Fold this protein.
Amino acid sequence: MLEQQAQEYWQQLTQAHSEASWLQQHQRSLLPVLGLSDFIARSCIQDLNVVARLLRQDELSAPHPDYQSQLNQLLEPLSDEDAVHEELRKYRRLQMVRLAWLDLTNQQSIEDSLQQVSLLADALITSAIDWCYNSLAERFGYPLQDGRRQPMLVIGMGKLGGAELNFSSDIDLIFCYPHLGETQGGKKTIENQQFFTKLGQKLIAALNQMTAQGQVFRVDMRLRPFGDSGPLAMHFAALEDYYQEQGREWERYAMVKGRVINAEGHFSQELGAILRPFVFRRYIDFSAIDALRNMKALISKEVRRRQLTDNIKLGAGGIREVEFIVQTFQLIRGGREQELQQPGLLNILPVLKERQYLQAEDADRLREAYLFLRKTEHCLQQFSDQQTQQLPVDELDQVRLSTVMGFDQFSEFKSALETHMAFIHEQFMELIGDEPENQNVEELSDLVDLWTLPLSDEEALPLLQDYLSANKSERFWQKLKSFAEEMRQRSMGKRGRETLDKLMPTMLQLVLESKQSEKLLERMTAVIKSICRRTTYLELLLENHSAMEQLVRLCSASPWIAEQITRFPILLDELLNSEHLYELTPLDGYVDELRLSMLRIPEQDLEAQMEALRQFKLSQQLKIAAADVTGVLPVMQVSDHLTFLAEAVIREVVLDAWQQMQARYGRPAGIEDNQLGFGVVAYGKLGGIELGYGSDLDLVFLHNCDSQQETDGAKAIESGNFYIKLAQRIMHLFNTKTASGDLYETDLRLRPSGNAGLLVCHIKGFAEYQEQEAWTWEHQALVRGRFVFGDTRLAEDFSRIRKQILCRERPVEQLREDVSSMREKMRDHLNKEQKEGDVFDLKQGRGGIADIEFLVQYWVLAYSTRYPALCEYSDNVRILRALETHKVISSDWVNVLTQAYLIYRNAGHQYTLAGQPAIDSSGSLQELQQQVSSIWEQVFGTRQSLNQ
C-alpha cells in the first residue's frame, strides 16, 4: 500500500518537473518518504527547490541549521511586506519538510524533533517581529520611555512556551511591552500603545495570513488578558494589575508554560518578576488539586461533547493528562522550588523523580508513555501537515503510523498505545481522581429484582409495597414494565446494558422516595431513553451518586428542566459538581465565562463555535433554573441572570460574525480600528431586563458608517452593504439549528418599516423614521428599548434619539385612544383564555401583564415631556418608581401595579418550569386582576369585565 502511494506521488513529481533529470538518481531515497507523507510529497511537487535543497546540499544529514541566522539573512534585504510573508512561508515549508523527513524515517528522536520545531517557531516569530518593528519605526520612530527603546515581548504559551511544540500546531501568544510613552524619531509621533498594537497586527498577519504559499502558523491571541475584548498589547503595569485582580485559575495553569520568545535580559526579567507571584504561590498550594479536578471535568465534558474516542490528546490517558500531572506538582510546590518553574514538561519530570514526588519507575514510565504519544502525534500531523490528535480510520494512514512507530500491524501499535494510556490514566486518577461511591446492594435488592428479573404483576407489586399504596404501585409498575420492555428492544451494546442494569435500581430508589414518584418516573425514564446509547452518560450517573441525586431533584422540581436535559443530554455534565450547579455566575461574569468556554475552539471551526455557544447558553440557563426552583433566586434576579446571559451571547455572536465578515471583506471604510460602527438594541423583555425561560429576543441592528467607499479586503464590497451581510451572518449564527438546537429565537420586526425594512438601519435613518413615520405602538415599544452591545458613540446616539422621541409632546386624548385601541387588538388576537371556565391568561388577560405594560408606556409617552427622568430606565418596575417620585400616579397605584407585575412574572416563570402555559385557574390572582383592571378603567375609561 505504501509502495503504491509512493509510486503515484513519484509519477506526479516527475511529470510536474520533467526537466529535472537529476531526480532519477534520487528515486530510491525519495520513494519511501513520498509514501509516508502527503505533506512532503505535495511540497516537493509544488516546489522543486524543496527537493533540490534537501538532496543536493545534503541537508538531511547535516546538523540542524541556525534558523535565526538564516532567516535574518533572508529578510534583511527585503523592503516589501508581501515579500517578507512569502519568504517566511517558503522557509517554514522547507524546514518542516526536512524535519518531517527526518522524523518519519526515524533519523532523529522525538525529543530532538520537539526541540527543533520549537526553535524554528521561535526563529520565525522573532525574525518576523524584528522586521515589522523596524518597518514601523521608519514611519513612526521608536517607542521610547525615559529615552530607552521599548521592545514588544512575545509570550509563547502552551507547547510553544514549553519548547515542545507540535509539528502542525497553532501558537498561543500574548503581547506586552514595558511602559507607556511615545515614539520619537519618525515622520509621525504616536503613543507606544498604538505602536505596539500596530506591531502586533503586523506580526499576526506575517504569521497567520493565508497566501499561495500557505501560512506560517495559525495564531491564537485569546489567552491574553480579557481575551478577544482585551487590548492586543498591554504594558507591564496593566498586565500586573490584571493578573493580581482578575487572573483566573485556568490562567495560572496556562501561564506555567509561558515563555518570552523574542527577548532576553532586563525586560524579560522584569516581566518574570511580575508573572511569577501570580503563577507560583509562596506557600505549598494544595488548592491546585481542586482546581485540577474542575479542569478534569471540563476535559471529560469536551471529550463527551465531541465524542472523542480515539484522541491521544484529550482522551483518558492522553497527552493532556500527563501535562496536568506535571503542572499540578509545579503549581503546588513551584513557589518554593525554583527548579519546578521551568515551562518544559520533559525538564520537570527528572526534578519530580529526583525530589521523589514521583516514584522513579513511575516517572520513567510517564516519560516513556509521553514520548510515545508525542511521537504518535507528530506522525499524525506530518502525514498532511494538519493539526490532529485523532487516530486514523483510513487504512493507508494506519499503515503509515504502524510503520513509523515500528510495528508490523496497526493492532500491535494500538495495543502498545492502550498500555501507555492506561498507565497515564492510572497515575492521573491517583493524583486527582475520586472513587465512585459504593451502593448498599442489600438495601437495593428488591429493586434490583424489580428491574432485572422477568417478574409477573403478582410478583412485582409486593416489592413496591414499602414505597407506594396498592393503586399507585399498580400504575408505577405498568409504566416501569413498559419502559423495561422498550429498553430490551433497543440496541445498546453489552457495556451499555450492563451499566443500565446497575444504574436503574439506584434511580428507582430515589424516584420512589419522591412524593410524586409516578410523574417523576416518566421524566426520568425519558432522560434515560435519550442517553441509553451513550454509555458514557450512563456511567457518569452510575459512578457519581450526587449527580444522580441532582438529576432526580431537578426533574422532580421541574418538567421543563427534565425536558431540557432529555433534549440536550450534555447538560448532565453540569450535575457533576452540586456546588458548581448552584453557584451562579455573577451578573458581570457571563462575558468572561463565555470567553473561557470559547477559548479553545479553533476560529476556523464555525460549526464547533455555534455548538459551543448553544451549550454555554443551555448550561447557564440550567443553573439559573436550578437556583430558581430551589428558591435561591427571587423573580427579579432570575430575569436579571437570563438577561445578562443573553447579552453575553449577543456580544459573542456579534464579535464572531464581525471577525468572519472582516476576514472575508475587510473593514468598512471610515471606521476606526477599535470600533465596529455597529450596535444592537433590545426591545421587549430583553430591553426591559425581564427575560424569561424560552423568551425570544426582539432586536434592532444599527450602524453609523457614512462612507460610500468599499471595504479594504481582498473581496471588497460597498461599506453599507458590509453591515447588511453582517446582520445576515448574526441571524445565521442565532437561528441555525445544531445538535443543541438554535441559540435564541430572534425577532427583527420592530426595526424601522418592520419586515419590509433593511435588516440593519443607519442611526440617522432610525432617527428620521422614529421622528416622522413611526406609529404610536412603535414609540410604546421604544419605552422598553435598550442598547445592549456596540460602539459607545452609537449607544450615546441611540440614547439621545430615544429620549428625544419619548419626551415629545403628544395630544393626550389621541395618545389614550391609540394605546387603548392597540391593547384591545392585541387582546383579541393573543388572549389564550377560554370562553368558558374561570381562567386567567397572565400575559394577555384583562388586568394582566400586558395591561400593566401598556399603562406604564402610556404614562411615559404622556408625561416624559414634563419629566424627562421617566425615560431613563427601560424596565417597568423602575419606571413605576419614577412615576411615583414625580407624582404622576399615586403610591397606592404604584404598589398595586408593582406587586401584581412581580407576582404575575414569578407565576409565569413557575408555569414555564412546570411545562404548562401561563394560564391560572386557581382564582388566587383574581383580586390583583380586579385592582389592575380598575386602574386601567380609570385611566382609559373603558370598562373591563373579568368574565368577558
